[in-house]
Amino acid sequence: MRDIQMVDLVEQYRKYGPEIDSAIKSVLQSAAFIKGPEVARFEEELQRYMGCKHVISCANGTDALQIAMMALGMKPGDEVITTNFTFIATVEVVALLGLKLVLVEPDPDTFNISVEAIKKAISPRTRAIVPVHLFGQCADMEQIMKLAKENNLHVVEDTAQATGSEYFFSDGSRKKAGTIGTIGTTSFFPSKNLGCNGDGGALFTDDAELAAMIRSISNHGMKERYHYDHIGINSRLDTIQAAILLVKLKYLDRFNEARRKAADTYDEAFKTCPHITIPARNKASVHIFHQYTIRVKNGKRDELRKFLASEGIPSMIYYPGPLHMQKAYRDLGYSEDDFPVTSMLCREVLSLPMHPEMEAEQLEHITGKVLKFFENV
Predict the structure, then answer these.
(1) Per-residue pLDDT tens over the stretch 277-308
(2) Do residues 319 and 264 lie in contact, with contact meaning Cβ atoms separated by under 8 Å?
(3) Which helix (H) or strand (E) holds 270?
(4) Fewer beta carbons within 10 angstroms: which end of the chain, N or C?
């Protein structure tokens, strides 16, 4: 049995290395390191895969979120509603732009933003909702889009953990995560379901005017070279990363299916364990399991993690502390007890190894050790 990794990028490279090496070599030979032809080709291929009209690549997922909010013309003081249970990038761009951050609770079962919590948080100053498709499945986008339409709000989807997931609407239609709201954003960080070998990101939209604005903002505010129509930033996907992503995009559905099969094995092993809550699957979404995250009851999460580490099994806590209690965000004015669901999740969640290269022997070893821990609890 291979050593167990949270994300086994070495094994992935062993499988797809020759194609990746060839793609990188082609860029090196052309020396078109910035805005080379592979960048435009990747945007076109991803646009076809996502089923949207415009894909604009950028340097990373955090930039993608910032560019989205800049493109929407949001001004200091405008309120943005998002979840308290997410990676910091979702909220830091709101703070950096001088917007007013409004945090709300997640659903305790799916981990995604609660629609009921959004309803309660909407005010006359609300301009946007940022649902995060956490751990690989979509938030309740049909209800979120209904709320947005009723209140004339933008929706910026944070799809960094769910590229390739789909959402099913009640009318039978379906859309890829990131193509439902006003703008979708994603990250190509190496550990993502679609990851490059460095940093990268992208934005999705069907609005041609917004797409032009996004492309301009990401390139110093230029539309025509050395003519600056907007205040912008420098955020480009480099050509080598685009070439790598072109290779991996071909296998994204295969990667996601392998993750689902690994999650099925975990579910089957843990479904009758009274000490574990397995992750709920939103029936309206295809879950692609960027993470497989359980909830450990009765305060045993940290003990389980320590036990697994002693057995050579890595695990991670996503996320160990509520955002409203982070030092950088204390000035938001929230008190420690304002988010009981978020605080509970931060005490209970544990993510187990999850990647497309997981072997049956590894999964059997992990599940066996987890269940062994609870034998005497």
Answers:
(1) 999 999 999 999 999 999 999 999 999 999 99
(2) no
(3) helix 252-270
(4) N
